[in-house]
Amino acid sequence: MSKRSIASFFTKLPETSKKPRLSSPAPKDASVEDVKKEEEDVEESIPSIHPSYPHPILSLPPHLLSFLATYQPPQPRQIKKPDLQIDSYTPFFPPSTAKSLYLFLRASLPFYRVTYSIKRGDLETTVNTPRFTTVYGIDSHSIFLNPDSNDGGDSVDGEKRVLVDSKTKKTLGSERYRACVCRPRPIPQCLEVLKNIVERETGEDFNFVLVNYYASSEDSISYHSDDEHFLGPNPTIASLSLGTTRDFLLKHKQDKNQTLKLPLSNGEMVVMKGATQKKWLHSIPKRSSTVTGSWTNGGRINITFRKGVEIACTGNYYRYNVGSGPVYRWNSGKGEMEIWGDKSVKKAALGDGTGTQD
């Protein structure tokens, strides 16, 4: 099978009939060579640019694109309990590829630590999201279209992408998403490639990509279900794990005896289907200690692929995953996330000279 060009990843991936050999397992700890290689990947990548991005978002490096062009994941294991249906890929991506994706995305994406208020009766509570988040995409009522594209469809190629009505293809003003805390953002190439592969393997269509970065054992997400009306009945959600292993806990909403614990490791993916969201809750709890001395720095990236079918989905996802606070970027020198407004952070993150879009 011939290799695909970088440009070809802006369209759907074709079906593959031959499984290539998996890459060799990742070493336990990152070496100087590992770090140098990841820095070279960032410098060689061509960025995705759009006015809605806080800065250019680098595209996947050639060596990852070359591998992903012909890669086909193994078949999933089905997990079934009352009202629960999960396809488990162990792994979806081989560990070495998942490692490269983790390091690249952590260094390349803008993240947010969202704070918001909720009101129950007369009591208003401020919630500080216990993890870093970011989101891209738009609900099914709209699409991002490049006016200069000849295919007449959804396009992720170039900074000229504008929001249009998905049926009429007419350009949208600000009215439809006036309640959104920020301008909706098209999915950048580095995440679009992964979405295309997940869609091909699951047979689903997704229009949102949510990314969580759990920086340490203290970062978490409490029990919840993604059963909002704007996702439609019985939504399918694919969840890809990169980095440190964290426990994924599930429990039935009514039958307290029905529980499930899945330690999700680097490269694994679970696809929640059927009545799972309606009948079950899931969480990533805090751990007793952070893994140290590893290439993950104790962190974990979780990428979820979803389909929003109502306009309300867009406002909700950007409010709780971007918000109105500062942008955070990974500072490789300090080994932690820092606020993007700091000039030293900008210099560390954009050493390739691509500049910023404040």
TrEMBL record:
One of its GO terms (biological process) is DNA alkylation repair. Residues 30-39 have a biased composition (Basic and acidic residues). Residues 205-309 form the Fe2OG dioxygenase domain. Substrate binds at D227. GO terms for molecular function: broad specificity oxidative DNA demethylase activity; cytosine C-5 DNA demethylase activity; ferrous iron binding. InterPro entries: AlkB-like (IPR027450), AlkB-like_sf (IPR037151), ALKBH2 (IPR032852), Oxoglu/Fe-dep_dioxygenase_dom (IPR005123). 2-oxoglutarate binds at N212, Y214, H224, H282, R300, T304, R306. Pfam families: 2OG-FeII_Oxy_2. Residues 1-50 are annotated as: Disordered. This is Fe2OG dioxygenase domain-containing protein.
